[in-house]
Design goal:
The protein is 49% helix and 17% strand. By secondary structure, it is of the alpha/beta class. The strands form three sheets. A six-stranded parallel β-sheet has the order 3-2-4-5-6-13, with helices on both faces. A six-stranded mixed β-sheet has the order 8-7-9-10-11-14, sandwiched between helices. The protein has a two-stranded antiparallel ribbon with strand order 1-12. Helix 9 links the parallel strand 9 and strand 10. Helix 1 crosses helix 2 and helix 10 runs antiparallel to helix 12.
Length: 321
Amino acid sequence: MKTFAKTAFGAVVALGIAGSAQAANLKDPKDVKIAVVVHGAASDAYWSVVKRGVDDAAALTGAQVQYLAPQVFDEVEHARLIEAAIATNPDGIAVSIPDADALRGPVTKALAAGIPVVNLDSGEKEGQEMGVTLYVGTTSEYDAGVKAGERLAKEGTLKVACINHEVGNISLDQRCQGINDGLAKSGGSSEVVAVSQDPADVSRRVEAYLSAHADIQAVFATGTASANPLIKLFDDRELTGKIKLYTFDIGPEILDAIVAGKMGFGMDGQQYLMGFLPVLYLVENATHGFWVQNSTYTGPLFIDTPDKANAILALSKDGIR
């Protein structure tokens, strides 16, 4: 991983980017303060990989980097944490934007204070409307959902349950809507099943839903927080082969399931880069005046064969994929 990090750090200088700071205001890396304020706790399987990227970028650059997040999905607390980060007068802030209404105030406040802001993971369009010019993450979550829905329809799967563990999160809501609209082109449909991030709750609610909806052909998780419990549920209830299972995002459990033929595919957003690149971009802005002119799209990639899953399994277990 160090080789990749060093290469990426050096490559920033070679990017087609424009300076935005005066030389007199530039800092030494060790004096640069960056705040990464997102909606996902580092204890979450998905966000732990984002944090690994943040930590690696901090170690590489030598900057002072904080990772801040609510313990559970709580956009009021998320907004408060952004406000707290602004009060420290950082050299840059990286934020996820899953709820535009809740975060518009603090994000625009940071921009008005002259603090560079990079949007990561979610809310690209919403961030742009607030004035955030740089996004690192997957392309439109809605479009990704449409592609997934179209793919399922081609396989003959037309009745799908979309499991949403963060209803109200723009990205996850758009994923489910996209799946439904992709299926609808072929006469199919998807229904949202709202769950929490508690594995027992995921299993209980999905099992109850499937019992009441015998026509469901596939279950589609919106992320690792719902996918991992579903893998166990499918094993415990011997559902593999009876109902198909898919997910957004990947992790070791998901890749193992794909290798074993228990899951059709996972959609990889390469979230390590969502943590690594915003820190790198913000540090380069503070130390060299660089500012990337276009968003950086990290996915999604379809991990849909045992060979593809095996190829990145070791990296996933190491907290990088």
